[in-house]
Amino acid sequence: MIKEPAIKRKNPLWELATEYLSHLQFERRLSNNTLYAYKHDLKKYTNYMFDELQLRSIDSIQSAHVEQFVNILSDTPNIDNKDGLKKSASIHRLFSTIRGFHQYLCQIRITKNDPSQLLVPPRLTRKIPTTLLVEEVNQIIKAVDLSKKYSLRDQAILSILYASGLRVTELVELKLKNLLIGEGMIRVFGKGNKERIVPIGKIALSYLNLYLKELRPSISSKGNSQGILFLNHRGGKLTRMSIWNILHENTLRAGIAKKVSPHVLRHSFATHLLEGGADLRSVQEMLGHSDITTTQIYTNIDKIYLKEIHKEFHPRG
To answer: Are 144 and 250 in contact (CB under 8 A)?
Structure first.
């Protein structure tokens, strides 16, 4: 006798999660990258509640269930996500996503039950980020092979990443209309579509002007650029991975052994500003951090740097 295939039941918890995601997309206007992370977390959460714990309604989820789910993932080795978050950051974000989901359902009166309300979020351990020396940044930018067709673009990209501390997503989304060249500034739209104005700096501006004058017009004629600043060989927008590849190639050419990502250039930007005497509030504004505690991690890097200088040069170091 041939068995009928089991009919997979719809997960009503996931259906509620998709409503929440729509709210985040259209009312809160979160970025695509943030939405992707929320979707990833909520899919994992609702599937666990429905498939593993056999819970069929949102009201049946209790604090112990949420705690069990978080603990299981906390005990799972190698939970690094595709977006590069380390384990502690992944768990902390997951917890925040779950809490936001349940709070939303209470606000729109789908339920009165918030099982995450009394739970304590896992402590987020902040790792001191990798940074480069100023000389190392210069070596990477100068390592660009000027005989290659897109070298002017690549030098401008690397220079602006460091000079302005942009996130890689902010860089690929930059448009010509965001440039305030006469003022030496860029208008950037960061997380949550928040706008900020960031200086470019004379050296990065010179690389940018070369790219705009000597290379971009010929590339933009190949496709529909839609006003995007940095273009690929087809005249379209570069991907985040393209930026990673450009940086990786030139880091190798420069002979630097450190693992360097676009975010390392952003870390270096902030660290070098503080080492040079910039105040924390100004660095927070340029980085686009909504909370100054996020920026304060760079003061720890600065203290480590001062300790190293003291140890090397003080007679009793």
So the answer is: yes
CATH number for the domain formed by residue range(s) 134-313: 1.10.443.10
In CATH terms, is domain 12-107 a member of 1.10.3470? no
Q: Note the pLDDT tens digit of each residue in 155-166.
A: 999 999 999 999
Residue in the block written with tokens 């686009």 = 288
Catalytic residue numbers? 167, 191, 263, 266, 289, 298
Give me the DSSP letters along 107-150. HTTS-S--TTTTPPPPP-PPPPPP---HHHHHHHHHTS-TTSTT
Residue ranges of domains in the chain: 12-107, 134-313
Q: Is 0.70 topped by the overall pTM?
A: no
Q: Which tokens is 258 given? A: 């450190």
CA 231 to chain centre: 21
- How far is residue 112's CA from residue 45's CA, in Å, rounded to a whole number? 19
> Distance (Å, rounded) from C-alpha 281 to C-alpha 219?
39
